[in-house]
Amino acid sequence: MTSTDVTTEAENSGPGGYAAARLRLLTEGARSGPPRRTALSGLTDDWLAGLFDAGARGASGAPGLRGVSLIAVGGYGRGELSPRSDLDLLLLHDGGDPAAIAALADRLWYPVWDMGLALDHSVRTPAEARRTAAEDLKVQLGLLDARHLAGDLGLTTALRTTVLADWRNQAPKRLPQLRELCAERAERHGELQFLLEPDLKEARGGLRDATALRAVAASWLADAPREGLADARRRLLDVRDALHLATGRATDRLALQEQDQVAAELGLLDADTLLRQVYEAARVISYAGDVTWREVGRVLRSRAVRPRLRALIGGGKPAPERSPLAEGVVEQDGEVVLARAARPERDPALALRAAAAAAQAGLPLSLHAVRRIAAAARPLPTPWPAEAREQLVTLLGSGRPTVEVWEALEAEGLITRLLPDWERVRCRPQRNAVHLWTVDRHLIETAVRASAFTRRVHRPDLLLVAALLHDIGKGWPGDHSVAGEIIARDVATRIGFDRDDVAVLSSLVRHHLLLVDTATRRDLDDPATVRSVAAAVGSQGALELLHALTEADALATGPAAWSSWRASLVADLVKRVASLLAGDVPEEPASAAPPTAEEERLAMEAFRTGGPVLALRAQTGPPGEDTEEASGEPEPLGVELLIAVPDQPGVLPAVAGVLAVHRLTVRTAELRALELPDGVEGSVLVLDWRVAAEYGSLPQAARLRADLVRALDGSLDIAGRLAERDAAYPRRRGVLAPPPRVTVAPAASRHATVIEVRAQDRPGLLHRIGRALEEADVRVRSAHVSTLGANAVDAFYVTDDEGAPLPGEEAASVARKLEEMLRG
User: Fold this and answer.
1) How is the beta sheet containing 753-760 ordered, strand by strand?
2) Which of 348, 598, 635, 718 is the most exposed place for a label (fewest CB within 10 A)?
């Protein structure tokens, strides 16, 4: 059926015909994207025009068509109707008979409501419309896209002319207001190019920003870069169309649970492909906005300054000042541009030199300069000349200004020309709530963080390049650290590092997770732990670099990835490894270290009372010298919870369950049995835990002890309490979590078997694991708990009843049963 056929059916059949034609248009598979939006707008135009004509003829005393018109504004005025879009309509009249105007409005609005369509409507005279636009910027933006539907064309044309004239005359005042509106919206909704559940309309780089750029162009003060902008807007509109069809709702939020269906609607491979296209479109719009708003600011400053200059120098236009920054690079009017003598076609290092100069000066790289370099520059030879490598390091070490300059190079495709492997991580989403950024932006953020640590290491150039490359393997299948090691070796060779430096860089990429994983999941008192890290790192210089890279990587990931607690564990591990690399041999731990005075006191009291006793003590560490807000005060590392209880089954799950009931997060857990003094039969279990309050303050020790007594005697139903709390939370649809995985870590310790659990974090997870290990008849010597976002990675050091590591088959059997329990 052609669009003419659809329109004819709608005209002949009234509202019912429009509904059928609309349904057919939205469900026919052959039409989508701009053709469908155009057809839907045209179909709706004709239906509304028919309603207008019938209303004008049928209302008693209705005015003639010369005195009233129906106008589409906003998105409908642009002809961008998505399946569930609002209809933005203005009934414009010349002030005739109010009753007749009201009757005509009713004949227009009620059929729209009866159809179940969302309607944003107003009835105004031209003077009222103009006055409302002057008071409300959003109304004025909507009127800039006014489009005549029916009635008096002259009335509509006059309003359009007046509104555009007002907009251009008021641009010096209105454009700063529009820019502030865009900034406030970005603050509320975030950046579209990084969000896992983005708002296609409101987030920065979304459809509203694209509309704002159209408004700037209509002011005649500045214009956005046109290349790719229309295609980016079209892509976001296509995604919104598919989202409306997939959900049946007028929504602009691309929720996780709907992304696969939206991708299928668009014929895309999967949700990651969908997000990558959304991110690419948002990046184009965001960059166009940055360039456009800089141009607006420059024009407005020029207008404000020029009259004063003319008065001082008697007329004429002064030549802009140009300050040299580097060879072929100058500053002009707040931007970095190419010098007149620059020859990009003869200077392959110019792109990096200009970028480094801009970042060092904290200035944006001009659009004209980047495009001139992209159009004319020759590729760098392999390996790169030393100057190019040094300029890359300078760019990466410039701190926060690096981000804006890198985005300018990225927008014109220069990054992938310099580093072809970048293409696989560009705009790649990371489906992990811990990560704030796409893979490529995370790499740049890591370099920004690493730039603050360059005084801590002997080779800052290796630190910065390792920061840029540490996740480069995420564009390839398999373990990204393994793939990244190969890519990093190739890239480092290409950009001109010597063989020894290439080996260090590839090793840093291969082991960039080693320190934090080991520190949070392994027993640091076990010499096997320290030896394994020392063997992987190899030298004190590499350890120094890896320590700085670990912190920069975590800080660039998000607030959940780094804390004073993690920093203290990593620092402790680094200190031990450095000592070993310096030649000190770690002592083998005694089979039973002597108890502390506090442990002995609690143990005797537990034996005397026959029940658990406990003590709480705040733990602090030294202030972080490299944190952004170092206060000079010790930072809290959590609370030490020391528990002594007569030896009996079920202690671990009981303690873990009570802590979960009280919303305490467990970070580490040490368990040991203390023999009582000579002449006293029996033993006492001592548990040394590090905990932190999930919400608010810590509970009182007396309450913890009372609940622990009840948990041990079976009168406290921990599983039931946790289930009730879980049921009290509202159910939300979300991404299906991957199944839990339990493995045995080979050769992780000489004194125990290390069982590693990776699962979705939830209240009571440690309680369930503890029960399963108790049922497997193994003893838990210590537990190392690590939670990142929704993912828990816990390591348990277990032994048999005699305190020896489990035989291989038995360990595998325990891991298998534990995994089955967690999956059940």
Assistant:
1) 613-621, 635-646, 683-693, 664-675, 779-788, 791-799, 753-760, 741-745
2) 598
370 and 412 Cβ atoms separated by less than 8 Å? yes
**472/452 Cα distance (integer angstroms):** 22
Q: How close are the terminal C-alpha atoms of the chain, in Å?
A: 53
**Model confidence, pTM:** 0.81
Dist CA 466 CA 542 (whole Å): 11
The tokens of 765 are what? 């997870």
Cα distances (Å, whole numbers) of residue 58 to 12, 64, 174: 18, 11, 42
- Provide the 8-state DSSP code for 336: E
51 vs 57: CA distance, rounded Å: 10
Mean pLDDT, range 280-295, rounded to an integer? 95
Task: Please tell me the distance from the alpha carbon of residue 441 to that of residue 455, in angstroms, as a whole number.
Answer: 24
Number of other residues whose CB lies within 10 A of the CB of residue 670:
18
Nearest by Cα to 159 from 142, 135, 175, 174: 142
Beta carbons within 8 Å of 312's beta carbon, 6+ residues apart: none
Six-digit token string for 205: 């780089």
Sign of the torsion angle spanned by Cα atoms 537, 542, 547, 552: negative
HSE-CB for 362 with a 13 A CA cutoff: 2
Q: Distance of CA 504 to CAs 7, 293, 496, 511, 554, Å?
A: 69, 43, 14, 10, 20
Q: Counting Cβ atoms within 10 Å, is residue 259 exposed (0-12), middle (13-18) or buried (19+)?
A: buried
Quote the CA–CA distance of 745 and 811 in Å, as a whole number: 10
Task: Assess contact for 279 and 192: CB atoms under 8 A.
Answer: yes
Q: Could you please report the per-residue DSSP string of 36-78?
A: HHHHHHHHHHHHHHHHHHHHHHHSTTPPPGGGEEEEE-HHHHT
- Taking Cα atoms as reference points, which of 4, 27, 148, 135 lies closest to residue 79? 148
Length of the chain: 824
Answer for the pair 473, 484: CB distance below 8 angstroms, yes or no: yes
**What distance in Å separates the CA atoms of residue 244 and residue 263, rounded to the nearest whole number?**
12
Is it the case that residue 236 has pLDDT exceeding 60? Answer: yes
Two structure tokens written together for 75: 């998105």
Are 465 and 477 in contact, with CB atoms under 8 Å apart? Answer: no
Q: CA 626 to CA 734: how far, in whole Å? A: 37
pLDDT tens track for 508-531 = 999 999 999 999 888 888 888 999
Question: Residue 457 phi/psi, 5° resolution?
Answer: -125, 155
- Provide the token pair at 774: 């108790």
H-helix or E-strand containing 742? Answer: strand 741-745
- H or E element: which one contains 476? none
User: What is the CA angle 292-298-299, rounded to 5?
Assistant: 90
Lowest mean pLDDT among 35-39, 305-309, 475-479, 503-507: 305-309
- Quickly state the pLDDT bin for 727 (edges 50, 70, 90): confident
User: Percent of the chain, pLDDT > 90?
Assistant: 57
pLDDT band, very low/low/confident/very high, at 628 (cuts 50, 70, 90): very low
Most distant CA pair in the chain, distance: 112
Sequence-distant contacts of 208-214: CB under 8 A, at least 24 apart: 208/182, 209/182, 209/285, 209/286, 209/289, 210/236, 210/285, 211/75, 211/141, 212/141, 212/178, 212/181, 212/182, 212/289, 213/285, 213/288, 213/289, 213/292, 214/144, 214/145
409-447 residue pLDDT tens: 999 999 999 999 999 999 999 987 778 899 999 999 999
pLDDT interval class at 617 (50, 70, 90): confident
Residues 6+ positions from 588 with CB-CB distance below 8 Å: 527
Which one-letter DSSP state was computed for residue 198?
-
Q: Judge if the upstream peptide bond of residue 589 is cis by omega within 30 degrees of 0.
A: no
Q: Which of 182, 200, 190, 198 is nearest to 84 (CA)?
A: 200
Full DSSP string of 210-229:
HHHHHHHHHHTS-----TTH
> SS3 for 195?
coil
- Joined together, the tokens standing for residue 574 give 């680094």
Contact present, 553 and 470 (Cβ < 8 Å)? yes
